[in-house]
Write a structure and sequence with these properties.
Elements lengths: L7 H22 L6 H14 L3 E5 L2 H11 L7 E4 L6 H8 L3 E4 L22 E5 L10 H11 L4 E3 L7 E2 L2 E2 L6 E5 L13 E5 L2 H10 L4 E3 L2 E2 L10 H32 L13 E2 L5 E4 L3 H10 L29 H9 E4 L7 H15 L2
Parallel strand pairs: 2-3, 2-4, 5-8
Antiparallel strand pairs: 1-9, 6-7, 6-12, 8-9, 10-11, 13-14
This protein binds pyridoxal-5'-phosphate.
Pyridoxal-5'-phosphate binds next to helix 3 and helix 4.
């Protein structure tokens, strides 16, 4: 049996008639940059995400860059964030000259450990930027309590967490603003690059719309230095088609996670866990094993694709060498980077494929 790590062709095949029609409409109306499909998507995604405003972007990275601009972060400002995430979380800070101040993660959830945040706060700290990694909500109660105590704004990186809930409320609604990514591999993906910023603050939404369009509220009158970060019309059309399926896809991901859990419980693998009050959308299903690379090789040979999210924590990336970090600075994140293994979890996965993948894992562990 063959179980690819991710099967985008299967998803596109299933939606092909709907996507063809939506893209054809955009070709007819020629609204290629923003336009009615993007506006409709912004309205529908805001409702889905539980936010008042949604501003469409050409990537999650650019949405996060604009979020950093909304907070008026200046060179030398510090932002507390996680070293265990995709690099883009820290790009937003690097782009505005702010300094990422890393805090180690919680062993069980892979998310920022709230118990370590306060000792990292200094007079230069300007915000907290956690990630709902793999679709699992952070410990938002604890993080928000710290934000309130120190009067720090919270920006949520929800790039992997479309539809995830914390104590029944959608993530991305707890801070000043949140960002989403619609990269094709995300739980909701465009046919190309796209992202969004959501917020309940009208002033933030208005300024974000201006910043994504060359810093102009009125065409050719530029109030501040802005960007060309507009969402493409075709991506808006594609996302409108796909958003209708997102709830069913999330349910399928959760069903697959539950199946893995049942089949792998009791093995030497460490399985992902849903923290109290957290409802994960399983962008990734990440297990841990001390012999991760050997397990990965075994699965590869048996036709089961896997991935590493992520093999190098941000504080040890070459691009951030000037932060002066060394191996050992964030031991929990470093251990996670050595032991993590992402199993196939996408909605199109069949029950037989999950059973096969689990059987091949159990063959390796001898369970
Ligand atoms: C994907 C991702 C981003 C960036 O989104 P793009 O749309 O690829 O620019 C940011 N943060 C996290 C955690 C991500 O997974």
């Amino acid at each position: 049996m063959n179980v690819p790590y991710f099967d985008l062709p299967a998803q596109i095949r299933a939606l092909r008639p709907e996507l063809d029609a939506a893209i054809a409409r955009t070709l007819d109306n020629c609204s290629f940059c923003l336009g009615p499909d993007v506006t409709q998507f912004e309205r529908d995604f805001a409702a889905y995400a539980g936010s008042t405003h949604c501003v469409g972007f050409n990537s999650g990275t650019s949405a996060l860059h604009v979020a950093a601009r909304l907070l008026n972060l200046q060179p030398g400002d510090e932002v507390i964030t996680t070293p265990f995430t995709f690099i883009a979380t820290s790009w937003a800070l690097a782009y505005v000259g702010a300094k990422p101040v890393y805090v180690d993660i919680d062993e069980a959830t892979f998310n920022l450990d709230p118990a370590l945040i306060e000792r990292a706060i200094t007079p230069r700290t300007k915000a907290i930027l956690p990630v709902h990694l793999y679709g699992q909500p952070c410990d938002l109660d604890a993080i928000l309590a710290i934000c309130r105590r120190h009067q720090l704004p919270l920006i949520e990186d929800a790039a992997q967490a479309h539809g995830a809930r914390y104590k029944g409320r959608p993530v991305g609604t707890f801070g000043e603003a949140a960002i989403y990514s619609f990269y094709p591999g995300k739980n909701l993906g465009a046919c190309g690059e796209a992202g969004a910023l959501v917020t309940d603050r009208a002033d933030f939404a208005e300024r974000a719309r201006s910043l994504r369009e060359h810093g102009a509220k009125v065409r050719y009158y530029h109030d501040e230095v802005g960007y060309n970060y507009r969402m493409e019309g075709i991506q808006g059309a594609v996302l409108n088609v796909k958003l209708k399926h997102l709830a069913a896809w999330t349910a399928a991901r959760r069903r697959n996670a539950h199946r893995y859990h049942t089949l792998l419980r009791g093995t030497p693998l460490r399985l992902p866990l849903e923290a109290t009050g957290a409802e994960s959308v399983y962008h990734c299903y990440v297990v841990r094993h001390v012999q991760r690379d050997r397990l990965r090789e075994h699965l590869e040979k048996k036709g089961v694709g896997t991935a590493l999210h992520y093999p190098v924590p941000l504080h040890l990336q070459k691009c951030f060498a000037d932060l002066g970090h060394r191996a050992g600075d964030f031991p929990v994140a470093e251990r996670a980077a050595r032991e993590c293994l992402s199993l196939p979890i996408y909605p199109e996965l069949t029950e037989a494929q999950v059973e096969y993948a689990a059987a091949m894992i159990n063959e390796f562990t001898g369970w």
